Amino acid sequence: MTASHDFWQSALSGKSFPIHENDPQSGYYRMRSFRGGPWLPVAIWKDSDGQLKALRDGAPVDAQEVWTWCCQHPVSYETYVAVAEQGQPWPDEVPAGIGHNSGAADPVAGLDQSVTELREAATAFLESATPITSKAQADKAANFAERFAALEKEAEEARTREKRPILEEGRAIDARWRPVIERAAESKKELKKALEPYLLAERERLAAEAGPGPLPPVRAGSAGRRVGLRTVRRLVVRDREALVCAYRRDARLWAHPQVESALRDLAEADLRAGRAVKGVELTDEQVAA
Fold first, then answer.
1. Counting beta carbons within 10 angstroms of the beta carbon of residue 111, is it exposed (0 to 12), middle (13 to 18) or buried (19 or more)?
2. What pLDDT score does 3 carry?
3. Is residue 41 over pLDDT 50?
4. Are 121 and 94 in contact (CB under 8 A)?
5. Residue 26 phi, psi dihedral angles, 5° rounding
6. b vs e for 273-287, b when ≥16 Cβ sit within 10 Å of the residue's Cβ?
7. 29 bridge partner residues
8. Radius of gyration for the alpha carbons in the chain, expressed in angstroms and rounded
9. Out of 9, 53, 76, 101, which residue is the most buried by the measure of CB atoms under 10 Å away?
């Protein structure tokens, strides 16, 4: 390979070289004809007279015209030949036509079929490419993930659109009935609360008259369900510090998922604010996103 291919070779190896808009460099690249469009192979070279030449998708083109669009996308010579001259797909390309059934009469069935077909293709790819060791394999895996993300988004948007009229109708029904229900519930509670002093006094009167032994139930009302006294057991905290001490060493407390979550939230908030917390630390973790 001649010295004129230094930029291309360095770009292929992942090295960073300055890119000058008006200085096309010999090599093999690819570009999109429009945003989101298919990749097109590009070759740039100098002929025997030193004249700069270029091909885009097999057709002659001005190297200056394509340079800024392809300079950051170098490909190997073997890949260029396979795509441009032999008609093979790009190594990182997700098979065309897979995962594009969303136009079916039943949108759910169409998208489900799209996901199924794409999963089959992705599974076959992973079986042949695990572990992933090359840039082309990594790009293809990412492209599969992106296609799944697009299907996920399409399905979520379709679900939201289909459900929206029902939700709006439900909210309208709730809004129409809520004032009536709330007024009835509030009035019910108000009347029952007003009854409590009478019922308690009546219970004391019966207890005084009957002496020891079970008391007859105290009730009010002569139509439908009558109102009576009901024993409700409620926790009253008299000494919070004593309560904390009572359970401080109880394993059930520290095994409780809400306590664990609260501890983590407090610790993370303090650490992010620059305060030291014993027993924990913030770590950086690289994940695919």
1. buried
2. 45
3. yes
4. yes
5. -60, 145
6. eeeeeeeeeeeeeee
7. 42, 74
8. 37
9. 101
What are the two backbone dihedrals, phi and then psi, of residue 39, each rounded to the nearest 5 degrees?
-70, 140
Distance, CA of 66 to CA of 54 (rounded, Å): 9
Q: Whole-model pTM?
A: 0.61
Which helix (H) or strand (E) is 249 found in, with range?
Answer: none
User: How many other β-carbons are positioned within 10 Å of the β-carbon of residue 48?
Assistant: 5
- Cα–Cα dist 94/86, whole Å: 18
Name the DSSP class of 81: I
Residue 96: pLDDT band with limits 50, 70, 90: low
What is residue 116's predicted lDDT score, i.e. its pLDDT? 93
Does 2 have pLDDT greater than 50? Answer: no
* The pair of three-digit structure tokens given for residue 242, joined into one six-digit string: 């004593």
Per residue in 208-223, pLDDT (tens digit) is 887 777 888 899 998 8
Residue boundaries of the structural domains of the chain: 3-85, 240-271
The answer to whether residues 72 and 57 touch, using CB atoms and an 8 Å cutoff, is no
In this structure, the strands spanning 59-60 and 227-228 are: unpaired
| C-alpha 229: how far from chain center | 51
Exposure b/e, 232-252, CB count within 10 A at least 16 = b: eeeeeeeeeeeeeeeeeeeee
| Type of residue at 161 | R
